[in-house]
Amino acid sequence: MLTAEQIRRWHNTLPFWVSLTVVPLAILGAVQGGLWVVLLPVYGWIGFSLLDALTGLNEENADLETPEEDLFWYRFITIIWFPIQFCVIYGMIWWVTHSDHLSTLETLVLFFGVGVISGTIGINYSHELMHQKPALERWMADLLLGTVLYSHFRSEHLLVHHRYVGTPRDPVTARYNEGFHRFFPRVLRQCPQSAWKAEAAMLARKGLPPFHPSNPFLRYALLQAGFLLLAFLVGGWAGLGLFCLQAFVAIWQLELVNYVEHYGLTRKHLGDGKYEHVRPHHSWNAAQKASNWLLINLQRHSDHHYKPNRRFPLLQTYSAEEAPQLPFGYPVMTALAMIPPAWRRYMNPKVRAWRRQYYPEIEDWSAYKAGTNPLPR
């Protein structure tokens, strides 16, 4: 176990600052052009897959009694990420629209890479920040999500996903046999709707109308409109299009991860619309060391759903007896998810083994597979 004394040492935070390495790669691609523009996607998927193979697993857990003040340098990287990402996105828009050494294809690939930054790191950091209480951190989460035009994710994630994960009411719990190419358009359609309904229901319980100024959707709309306008002012119509391209790539990556995190895992229906409490075995766990550095322990997802407000340095990992394990980190698993036949051939046996391990008493899984169990109350 990592003791509080070990955790507070600043040099132990450095592996989680690996995200900063993407910035010079983006600049190098923009300046050099050619094959250099593919550095970011290659680094994110292939580079960290190889690093995972070399560094192995990290199954060591941190002391949960570590005080908040000892986590400052872990928190700091997430708090400062918005200005970093802001400069990368708008700096790249200005550069490519005020220089002529990049071809159209090179520019598009470069901004695919920018989307890798804003999706792999930006949305992930916003996810960490939105779960925390300080107003500054929640604002940083909103600003990061605004830069990828996916602000509703905060409402959907906090009010819907965590409450209803593993039930038919959660859009982002991927169903058994559901390929990613069916899952993706479904969540793009359903998540904004479920987020709006959840916020409207909260206002209704306070006796307020859905369009009350306290509805965060007003803030979401203003932030996104502001970022779109700025992209146009910096780079014209081309800049606006490139901004939207990186946002789409970021959203695609987020939903790829959402797909992997809960694929085929369901909570037991207890009858009359009641479901068991969320436990670690309702999320796929991954202990790969290098990708957990990049993703600030997001792959310890079993513990995140068990204790949603736990800060990322303190997230626990679990054994195969306590939670289902992914065989590889997210870089490999998300790439596999893009090939549905290969994904089903590899993951469906693991889901069936999970059912036998945790729910041997359930003989008929048809309602769970189809998502036709009663909606949770």
Automatic annotation (TrEMBL):
The molecular function GO annotations come to: metal ion binding; monooxygenase activity
**In which broad location class does this protein mainly occur, judging by the first location in its UniProt entry?**
membrane
Kindly list the residue ranges recorded as spanning the membrane: 12-28, 34-51, 72-96, 108-126, 227-252
Q: What is its EC number?
A: 1.14.15.3
> Which key words tag this protein in UniProt?
Cell inner membrane, Cell membrane, Iron, Membrane, Metal-binding, Monooxygenase, Oxidoreductase, Transmembrane, Transmembrane helix
For the keyword Transmembrane helix, the answer is yes
Keyword Cytoplasm in annotation:
no
* Intracellular or extracellular location(s): Cell inner membrane
The GO cellular component terms are: plasma membrane
Could you say which protein family the record assigns here?
Answer: Belongs to the fatty acid desaturase type 1 family. AlkB subfamily.
This protein is called what? Alkane 1-monooxygenase 2
Which organism is this protein's natural source? Pseudoruegeria aquimaris
